[in-house]
Amino acid sequence: MAKQYDVLFRLLLIGDSGVGKTCLLCRFTDNEFHSSHISTIGVDFKMKTIEVDGIKVRIQIWDWLSTAGTQRGQERYQTITKQYYRRAQGIFLVYDISSERSYQHIMKWVSDVDEYAPEGVQKILIGNKADEEQKRQVGREQGQQLAKEYGMDFYETSACTNLNIKESFTRLTELVLQAHRKELDGLRTRASNELVLAELEEDESKPEGPVNSSKSCWC
Amino acid sequence: MDQSVAIQETLAEGEYCIIAVQGVLCEGDSRQSRLLGLVRYRLEHGGQEYALFLYMHRRMAITGDDVSLDQIVPVSRDFTLEEVSPDGEVYILGLISGFLCAGSDVTVQLNTAELNLVFQLPFGSHTRMFLQEVARACPGLDPETPNPEFLWLSRYRCTEPEPPPPGWNSALGTWTGCARIGGGGSYLDDLRPNGKGLLVDQNSRGHDKPDNLLTRQTKSRSEMNDMIRCSTITVSDKAHILSMQKFGLRDTIVKSHLMQKEEDYTNIQNFRFFVGTYNVNGQSPKECLRPWLSHSTQAPDVYCVGFQELDLSKEAFFFHDTPKEEEWFKVVSESLHPDAKYAKVKLIRLVGIMLLLYVKQEHAAHVSEVEAETVGTGIMGRMGNKGGVAIRFQFHNTSICVVNSHLAAHTEEYERRNQDYKDICSRMQFCQVDPSLPPLTISKHDVILWLGDLNYRIEELDVEKVKKLIEEKAFQTLHAYDQLKIQVAAKAVFEGFTEGELTFQPTYKYDTGSDEWDTSEKCRAPAWCDRILWKGKNITQLSYQSHMALKTSDHKPVSSEFDIGVRVKDEDLYRKTLEEIVRSLDKMENANIPSVSLSKREFCFQDVKYMQLQVESFTILNGQVPCQFEFINKPDEESYCKPWLNVNPSRGFLLPESSIEIELEVFVNKTMATKLNSGEDKIEDILVLHLDRGKDYFLSVSGNYLPGCFGTPIHTLCYMREPILDLPLETVRELTLMPLCTEDGGSQLEKPMEIPKELWMMVDYLYRNAVQQEDLFQQPGLRLEFEKIRDSLDTGMIDTLDILSINNHSVAEALLLFLESLPEPVICYSAYHNCLECSGNYTASKQVISTLPTFHRNVFYYLMAFLQELLKNSEKNHLDQNILASIFGSLLLRNPAGHQKLEMAEKKKAQEFIHQFLCNSL
Fold first, then answer.
1. Which of B582, B635, B639 sits opposite A216 (nearest CB)?
2. Do B696 and A82 count as a contact with CB atoms less than 8 A apart?
3. Angstrom distances, CA of residue B614 to CA of A197, B602, B676, B677, B791
4. DSSP-based three-state secondary structure for B415
5. Beta-carbon separation of B630 and A79 below 8 A
6. Which of residues 530-589 of B touch A (CB under 8 A)?
7. Which residues touch B270 (CB under 8 Å, ≥6 apart)?
């Protein structure tokens, strides 16, 4: 019997507060949807196992929110949140199709990704809340245009109606797998930082930060 | 057959053959049969040693006469016996065209430092047991245990005077080279079949005493069983571990869930099974078997073909192989249904009892976990002249066990037959893929097909009567006298099994080569010896018949065809079920990520003042999962929070649904005050509360700091003609950041004061109230009063001190704190070393002081004057020059290197320096 292994990836959900990142995550991992908005102040994650090309992939999806709104608040948290970029192999950039502002901010988020995320990180653009057609402020083609500009795949999703949720998560996972094909092939001989053998996974699943360590050790 | 008995007979007292297995020693192209016996020796002083004895042997070793010692391999520390190609894929199928060698399924490699042997051992649980026993015998790596010495093996040395083989001392029994021997010396004595001289203690043989043999055997069995029962997997259990497949815990859980939900993703699909049994009476195949094996139009999916009395010769009984196996295998393979291609899955034989399993080629991929076993119930209840063989396998998702048995003969022995059946059921045990699971028995299968010469006869009726009834085809009448029917009805045997209607005439006993009933002297009554029974769900018997056309034997072959409903995986449904399981596991896992709720996440500290503790608290309420929490460092920071903040406790453990109160303490001391005054630092921080294996929470801390004279530079205070709290924050910031050397930089500013008014306020108060105060500067003040002093200094309410009649000690302490909190000490850091150097030289010292910036110089002389004033009252206040020099030396002169502990010499010099200004005129 061939040695079975799991691959662990870390994906990150980013975008303005209120675009529905947590809802996307809950829908994808637990197939649940809660419309009430609870601000995430901090960083949360959930696990999900999917199979792509016959490889069992465990994905750890990180979700954070940089305070309810104010620009000042965002900046305050930025020094902290940027650390989470470093660990990600894939990033969802999420806006809300009923919020022009959240769409405009994608540019800022992309520049953050460019600045903090590791090279070769895979990105995908998500226009969420596609079910709220009557409140639409951002056209589908606008989303496609922006995605094209940045060379990203684009999905309009709805956590509420479960539109394109699985598709978009699977797609990003595929992209990450492709990008790490080489390491994956070499997986039998060694486990790199990004690709973690299942046995090691338990130890890896926390953003380790021993208080006494003098180095910055969030990554 | 347990051949350890034969070995045991050759051993000396204290030596015990635990288990033996017959294998093939492979050296290059040569293949030689060897009997491998694991022998234990109990040492006199306790403990035991083991060696592997390799014997040449007559084909089936029964007594000590049948074996002769070839070599001995001590089980030393470097001894290993390992399976080299794990027998995982049992169903590597040989197509009919290519004959696969049956048996010799497990290849093991024996290694010591000097030896490397490869054996092929028969497939099955006996070999596995053997490997486990050997592994258990291997000495552990515990250095405490002495190296085995193997002194007991010395007696197996050739007794004839021959040059000793390398690695052992010529002196009998004194193996000084024991380490080397323990390191794997093999006693390649020149023992050959005739080398009986080496097998000492011939008297102990008991080949003429079968009773003795039997008891010994039974004993060894039970002893062995005990060992097996108490066995645990240890590290040294190499053979065991080798065959173990390691799955992640998660995979194991998924598997067990899949098993539970099998019905959700499998469909019952019928497969045609052909089951045949034929007692061939020791004959070689003489005719084509198609009339038996291919009589129906449809090609069966699976063939289960059993033979009995394949070979009646003594050789077959005593020795393992017989040419008949190959002959019959070949003819069966050639007689299978011509419309399909078949793959042999397994052949298993015990003496004359052989079972063959074939499947259509396209089904081969769906056959797995094939295991085969034998149980002898013949002579002494163990031998293979009677008994059963069985093959178990997984076909798609259904487990199937096929048993071929030859039960005890003779009409009156039906109880014996019942017992044989029970023995086969209880002793037939199949290893599982996962060795941690207990072995499977026949009854643990979804489908059981039992065929064979069960040997049950027709009783009570005389031969002629039976023959007459047969002629009349009155089979129904005969059933009442069929022992099997009677015993099954009495639930004495084959409980739960079904047999089809017997619509064919008895298959025993005919004159060979004819359809005539036995005409021999014995004139046996006809009987339905050859039977097929089944147990399980979804089984439909399509036919049950004999085949009179075959005349090779005194039996006629019997066949039965079945449609058997097998659980076949629906790939789509399977995937769906699997996904559901994975999703539920993910959900469970996510629910097990620790999570807490916080009673408060934003904290605001209003009007934080110098050295005034402010505390806010909040509660962490844990969820359902025990969790460990900790405030962790932010990137590039050395602590989890700013220096003015402290979290108590900053880490801890929470049981489910328990809670803990956390206090946030803000306290500004001299090291932080200046930067807070200048606005370089703010009461602002983010705390990261991290849960082990869980999320991170961000807590926001904010607030404002009220600037004060504490921590404000001397020159800044001089420029502040108004109380610091009356000034706009911006002005405080600017003045605080103003460089020290601006002697007259404040042209646009108001004219500065000579010394800070706050200093004057404190000194003036002390001058007026405390010059005669006993132990001034040596007693602590009151914390509450300090806050009042601080506030009155910062607000300029000079009178307050008098109105409240503040304790002298409190004011004195405040003065010291004020000096201590100065970011630049009264004697500037730059002058520090100069001062130390010229301490003792008053003129030079004064010279250094004169270089200080004006405000600092002013403050210095002001303080010195005040201290001299105090000394005038030393009778009352008990102060002397030394005390004051010591107190003020360390405050006015501070090492620029920071808080390092000063050396005594340095301290002393600082004191000396101040001392000069106390005893000389200023």
1. B635
2. no
3. 48, 15, 16, 18, 16
4. helix
5. no
6. 582-583, 585-587, 589
7. B538, B540, B563, B564, B565, B566
The tokens for B311 are 């070979």
All domains in chain A, ordered by first residue: 6-204 (3.40.50.300)
Are residues A42 and B696, on separate chains, in Cβ contact within 8 Å? yes
DSSP structure string for B259-272? HHTHHHHEEEEEEE
Greatest mean pLDDT among A76-80, A121-125, B70-74, B878-882 lies in A121-125
Q: What is the pLDDT of residues B590-640, one digit of tens each?
A: 888 898 999 998 899 999 999 999 999 999 999 989 999 999 998 778 899
Residues B618-640 as b/e (b if ≥16 CB within 10 A, e otherwise) read: bebebbebebebbbbbbbeeeeb
Which residues in chain B have their CB less than 8 angstroms from residue A43's CB? 695-696, 698
Q: Which residue of B has its CA nearest to A65?
A: B698
The pair of three-digit structure tokens given for residue B779, joined into one six-digit string: 């007693």
Helices assigned H by DSSP within B495-635 = 571-591
Q: Searching chain A, which residue's CA lies closest to the CA of residue B695?
A: A44
Neighboring chain B residues of A213 at a CB cutoff of 8 Å: 633
Q: Can you list the domains of chain B with their CATH numbers?
A: 4-240 (2.30.29.110), 249-571 (3.60.10.10), 596-705 (2.60.40.10), 824-922 (1.10.555.10)
Q: Is A86 on the interface with B (CB under 8 A)?
A: no
Say if CB B67 and CB B61 are below 8 A apart: yes
Nearest to B275 by CA among B123, B116, B450: B450
Q: Least CB-CB distance to B251: which of A4, A42, A79? A: A4
Answer yes or no: do B590 and A209 touch at CB < 8 A.
no
> Can you tell me the distance from the alpha carbon of B156 to that of B209, in angstroms, rounded to the nearest whole number?
26
Q: pLDDT band at B173, cuts 50/70/90? A: very low
Residue A206 at interface with chain B, using a CB cutoff of 8 Å: yes
The CA distance from B319 to B61, in Å, is: 8
Residues ≥6 apart with Cβ < 8 Å to B645: B664, B665, B666, B685, B701
Of A1, A42, A209, the CB nearest to B88: A1
Reported as a single tens digit per residue, the pLDDT across B490-504 is 999 999 999 999 999
Contact yes or no for B590 and A47 at CB 8 A: yes
* pLDDT tens-digit series, residues B741-800: 655 555 566 788 899 999 999 999 999 999 999 989 998 989 889 999 999 999 988 788
Phi-psi region of B455 (alpha: psi -120 to 50; beta: other; left: phi over 0): left
Q: What are phi and psi of B542, to 5 degrees?
A: -100, -35
Using an 8 Å Cβ cutoff, are B831 and B824 in contact? no
- ipTM metric: 0.80
CB contact (8 A) between residue A42 and residue B694: no
Q: Which of B463, B468, B817 is nearest to B673 (CA)?
A: B817
| Residues of chain B numbered 239-278 and touching chain A (CB < 8 Å) | 245, 247-248, 250-251
The β-bridge relationship of strands B48-57 and B67-74 is antiparallel
How far is residue B589's CA from residue B625's CA, in Å, rounded to a whole number? 11
Q: Does B700 touch chain A (CB under 8 A)?
A: yes
In angstroms, the Cα distances linking B204 to A164, B56, B200, B217, B378 are 83, 20, 9, 15, 26
- A47 CA to chain B: closest CA distance, Å? 6
Nearest Cα of chain A lies from the Cα of B301 at a distance, in angstroms, of 26
Separation of alpha carbons B905 and B919, rounded Å: 21
Q: Which amino acid is at B916?
A: Q
A172-181, B46-55, B163-172: segment of lowest average pLDDT: B163-172
Give the DSSP H or E segment for B677.
helix B670-678
Residue B579's closest chain A neighbor by CA? A50
